[in-house]
């Protein structure tokens, strides 16, 4: 495949007048100088660790025929200056792959917690009714023919548009994708016309990356605020900040509540006594909007997965299924058989005692997880908590303060902390400051604990403390 350079450049907003454009055909786009092929365009992006402008000569040596940059440089090929190279990469990639998202119904899933499980639930519902569906997220990418492991929650724009092109070519009708705040700030999803968006919860997350909660919120909410009028947002009315987005978007919206707050959809009769949830999904009266119509209903649902948070996730999946015309019986069947996602409040052993694997990403995640355990019936709760490396002292301190808040409310037996030192790579190694942020708070609160650096040893220690009818949360 090749496209004339002038045709590709016509998709960009350039900061300076065009220099003479040679009449050459471009064979591809790359933002990685080591992957440049002859006649590619190289897009120089200033990153957090490396600056692509420093590798322009290498890209040209690899065969780059033109360069997109944010500042003037001297080179033997045409240089085109843009205000934002990340946006340019997205625009060029979208054009190169012939605007693949326009051929499918695009569903964006955002939240501080539960994006992965919600996306998997939605895809489970859609795939019950539609023959070929796509999924892009933290754990896997499913392109309609094969499923492979994922590296990032939201891939960079060049890779993302290539994935979407495969999905289009594989005849996917719907694509469900997680959309992170980092993906928004880094312009990875620039140009994707979302038809449906869900926003389930918000808490303090990625503060070290964004700099402040305000900046995090600015990027997190962009997905909803910039929706077109022809799109629909599904919003959690139990979260005041999220509910305010109803007045900040041109899109249609539908709201839901598990706490009897005013909303289009009410969730009642919640039962979590066994861990797995059952509830009633109620639309009290017909909801008519320019983009959709929802008929009244009062339906009972039973989930296989554990936790109050999964009732929120399931409410989103049910609503989205209805908006996508999936029959109610197929929605019910999909959720009743949904087995969950690895390390998302996952029941990995259920015998004389239970072992649940979860990830304490942030304070909101911890609150939901421990609140769910407070509603379950068991003997004692043993906690094995991995300190989060490369997340900073602030996140670790806030997470530990939240755990300390819950400890008196739960029948806690053993508390073990670990650095998981035999498994983490360089990026996730726990620093001395991060460890101190956790242990100092526990010491100040008078909490009894054991710190065991190796995860394997920590698991053996927590298993030794276990008795019949106990729960181990890792």
Highlighted features:
3 domains; Udp-n-acetylmuramoylalanyl-d-glutamate--2,6- Diaminopimelate Ligase, Chain: A, domain 1; 16 helices; globular; about 475 residues; alpha/beta; eleven-stranded mixed β-sheet
Model description:
- By secondary structure, the protein is of the alpha/beta class.
- An eleven-stranded mixed beta sheet has the order 10-9-8-11-7-12-13-14-15-16-19, sandwiched between helices. The chain has a six-stranded mixed beta sheet with strand order 20-21-25-22-23-24, covered by helices on one side. The protein has a four-stranded parallel beta sheet with strand order 3-4-5-6.
- The longest helix has 16 residues, at 308-323.
CATH fold-level assignment of the largest domain:
UDP-N-acetylmuramoyl-L-alanine:D-glutamate ligase
The residue-averaged pLDDT reads 92
Main sheet properties: 11 strands, mixed
List the uncertain runs: none
Précis, in short:
The protein has 474 residues and is α/β, with parallel strands linked by helices. The chain is 32% helix and 23% strand. The strands form 5 sheets. It has an 11-stranded mixed sheet with strand order 10-9-8-11-7-12-13-14-15-16-19, sandwiched between helices. The chain has a 6-stranded mixed sheet with strand order 20-21-25-22-23-24, covered by helices on one side. It has a 4-stranded parallel sheet with strand order 3-4-5-6.
